[in-house]
Amino acid sequence: MQVTELAADGLKRQFKIVIPAQDLTAKVDERVAEMARTASLPGFRPGKVPAGLLKKQYGQALLGEALEQAVNQGTAKAIDDRGLKPALQPRVELKGEFAEGKDVEFEVAIEILPEIGQLDFSGVELERLKAVVPDKSVDEALERIAKANREQKPVDPPRPAQRGDALKLDFVGSVDGVEFPGGAAQDYVLELGSASFIPGFEDQLIGAEIGKPVDVKVKFPDDYGNTELAGKDAVFKCTVKEIREFVDQPIDDALAKKNNFETLDAMKKAVSDRIGQEYTQVSRGMIKRQLLDKLAETHKFQVPEGLVEGEFNAIWQRIEEAKKNGEKIEDEEKARTEYREIAERRVRLGLLLADVGRSNNIDVTPEELNQAIMREAMRYPGQERQVLEFYSKNEQLKEQMRAPIFEEKTVDFILELAKVTDKPVTPEELLEAARKADTDEETPAGQSPSAN
Question: pTM for the complete prediction?
Answer without folding.
Answer: 0.71
